[in-house]
């Protein structure tokens, strides 16, 4: 991981520095699974859709565990729970706009996903479809912007 000079001076273990890239990979996998699940249900392949969407949920749970671990470890080793985007970077306004929308919507994804899965579990297909139409685009946006944020924060 490439950090600004202040991060390079700190003694942060490699496993902590590896977590943002792992999170980006997990978000990418979630994106692919979500899109696959969407295409499967459009083709009326319900059993495959179920497996793929549950996989997307599982990957998202692993992502959340890695994300929280990274921020807790960063706080432990640096006193700050996050890496700051450079003030002088010309991409900062765009970064902050994407970050804000990502954070607000990311807070809703676990609740929406659980409600959507629960309605499918109960075979309440009308309510499942209804909430899935809200959950899917939000979850997809959050997984895509998670990768965008990673690249902006660590590779710009």
From TrEMBL:
InterPro entries documented for this protein: DUF420 (IPR007352)
Pfam families: DUF420 (PF04238)
Keyword set, alphabetical order: Membrane, Transmembrane, Transmembrane helix
Keyword Transferase: no
Residue ranges crossing the lipid bilayer per the database entry: 20-41, 53-74, 94-117, 138-155
The protein's name in its UniProt record: Terminal oxidase biogenesis protein CtaM, putative heme A, heme O chaperone
Source organism of the structure: hydrothermal vent metagenome
Lineage: unclassified sequences, metagenomes, ecological metagenomes
